């Protein structure tokens, strides 16, 4: 990837899961629905605040619903988030 975050920012690839209704109907991506609020960290900036969070590439994080900026690189969508947009890390 050619995208490197500056300062207290990280680059996250949002999770994309098929949404299934209770009755088992799979909703395609064309259906208007809420965006996922979690994703995998693919790059970490070198800022002091982001380093205190001890995030590393491969971590799965939960972030603010409307936080960050969407960017598309090589036809893949990413979110560039500030340190304050990261709410939690999902532990495996």
UniProtKB/TrEMBL annotation:
Belongs to the GroES chaperonin family. It comes from the Bacteria. NCBIfam families: PRK00364.2-2 (NF001531). Its main location: cytoplasm. One of its GO terms (molecular function) is protein folding chaperone. This is Co-chaperonin GroES. Heptamer of 7 subunits arranged in a ring. Interacts with the chaperonin GroEL. GO terms for cellular component: cytoplasm. Together with the chaperonin GroEL, plays an essential role in assisting protein folding. The GroEL-GroES system forms a nano-cage that allows encapsulation of the non-native substrate proteins and provides a physical environment optimized to promote and accelerate protein folding. GroES binds to the apical surface of the GroEL ring, thereby capping the opening of the GroEL channel. SUPFAM superfamilies: GroES-like (SSF50129). The gene is groES. It holds the Pfam family Cpn10. InterPro entries: Chaperonin_GroES, Chaperonin_GroES_sf, Chaprnonin_Cpn10_CS, GroES-like_sf. Keywords: Chaperone, Cytoplasm. PROSITE patterns: CHAPERONINS_CPN10. It is found in: Cytoplasm.
């Amino acid at each position: 990837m050619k995208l490197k975050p500056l300062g207290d920012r990280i680059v996250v690839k949002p999770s994309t899961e098929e949404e299934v209704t209770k009755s088992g109907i799979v909703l395609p991506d064309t259906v208007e629905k809420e965006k996922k609020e979690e994703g995998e960290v693919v790059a970490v900036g070198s800022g002091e605040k982001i380093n205190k969070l001890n995030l590393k590439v491969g971590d799965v994080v939960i972030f603010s619903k409307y936080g960050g900026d969407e960017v598309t690189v090589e036809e893949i969508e990413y979110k560039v988030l500030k340190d304050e947009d990261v709410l939690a890390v999902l532990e495996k």
